[in-house]
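Troubleshooting: if your tokenizer reports a length mismatch, compare your output against this known-good record of 266 residues.
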Amino acid sequence: MKTTAVNLHWTPFYSLFKREIHRFVKVIVQTVLTPFINSSLYLLIFGVSLGKNIQLRDGVNYLAFLIPGLVMMGCLNNAFQNSSSSVVTARFGGDLEDFRASALSDQQMIWAFSLGGLIRGFIVGSITFFIGEVFYYGQQGEWLGVQHPFALLAFLIMGSLTFAKLGISVAYWAKSFDQLSAVTGFILVPLTYLGGVFFSIEHLHPFWQKVSQLNPLLYFINGVRFSVLGVSDVDATTAFIVSLVATLICHGLALYTLRNSLFKRW
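Known-good structure output:
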């Protein structure tokens, strides 16, 4: 009887989670082909063509410097897009009423959407890393190794979950797809590009270095860079702490937004 009760309790969660997976699998071109093309262009233009003229500290090759940043950027963007678009579509399509009728708890809804975003982020990040390895091998004649694989996994999980949960909050706040696109275009994209994906903050003026250190994405990106290369612009422990705190804050924000949304009044 207890086993049956547990299964009934988690069945709605598994159903919503599988729905999230099937949702982005149906648009496999957007999930796989688009990141493949974008990553190839970034690596070709910045890593190969312009990277030859860029000198970094510790003798780090610019292409090797770029790859971890692109991996993290792909994870963050796709985790956010997956959860936010799913919640917005469900809001305006009336599916959220069905979710509540299925006895899904707030935590289960958040984790189902978040894990869907996490898996999509991992797929895109893996594709980006594979493409980067091919470019790096073509330029250097060897594969780019990973110095700290467990740290890499930890930062990718925290980054993807943070942005997936942030996507839930933004989607509940947005009153239209235009508002959702505005948040992505005017806030998240600039923060991502200014988070050190393409450049080291050591090349910035001291004032702008201080400003960049207020950007939480700097710590996610440099956490992945440290995991792959063993060097980064910020201390690895600091990057881990900031990333973990950001994950917890975004989870709390998603929970607060969900519990105080208009959906509660339906």
